[in-house]
C-alpha cells in the first residue's frame, strides 16, 4: 500500500509517499511545494491544487493523510491555513483518495514517542524509521511523519478487524 502524507501550508506544503508492506515501511519520495507569496490568493490555491494533483498522478497512492487544522493566535493565519488545506483536500478528493486527518500531537507521539516533540526530533525519527529518506525540508519530514502515523493506524485497524 502506498500512502501519501501531506503537511499543508500556503507557503511550503510538505508531502511524502511511503510504502507499507505488512509492518514494514519504506520511503518512496518526498518534497516541498513552495508557492510564491506575492501571487494572488486564487492563483496560489490553484497552484497548490495542481501540484498536489501532479504528485497523485506520479505516485498513484492508495491512501492519503494530513494534519488536522490547529488554531493559531492570529485568525488571519488560521484562515489562510484553512484555505490551503481546502485546496489540498480538493486535490486529494479529485484524485479519488479518502483522506484521514490526525492531530499534530498524535502524529508526533506516533513517530517520536511524545506529542511535544520538536520538528528536528520528528525529522530525526522519520529518517530512522525510513532508511534512505532525506526530507528536503522540515515540512517534508512532517508530511512523512503524517504518512507513518497513518500507516500505524491502518495497521491497528486491520488487526482489530481480524479479531
From TrEMBL:
GO terms for molecular function: hydrolase activity. Its cofactor is Mg(2+). The RuvA-RuvB-RuvC complex processes Holliday junction (HJ) DNA during genetic recombination and DNA repair. Endonuclease that resolves HJ intermediates. Cleaves cruciform DNA by making single-stranded nicks across the HJ at symmetrical positions within the homologous arms, yielding a 5'-phosphate and a 3'-hydroxyl group; requires a central core of homology in the junction. The consensus cleavage sequence is 5'-(A/T)TT(C/G)-3'. Cleavage occurs on the 3'-side of the TT dinucleotide at the point of strand exchange. Mg(2+) 2 binds at residue 67. It catalyses: Endonucleolytic cleavage at a junction such as a reciprocal single-stranded crossover between two homologous DNA duplexes (Holliday junction). This is Crossover junction endodeoxyribonuclease RuvC. Mg(2+) 1 binds at residues 7, 139. Belongs to the RuvC family. Keywords: Cytoplasm, DNA damage, DNA recombination, DNA repair, DNA-binding, Endonuclease, Hydrolase, Magnesium, Metal-binding, Nuclease.
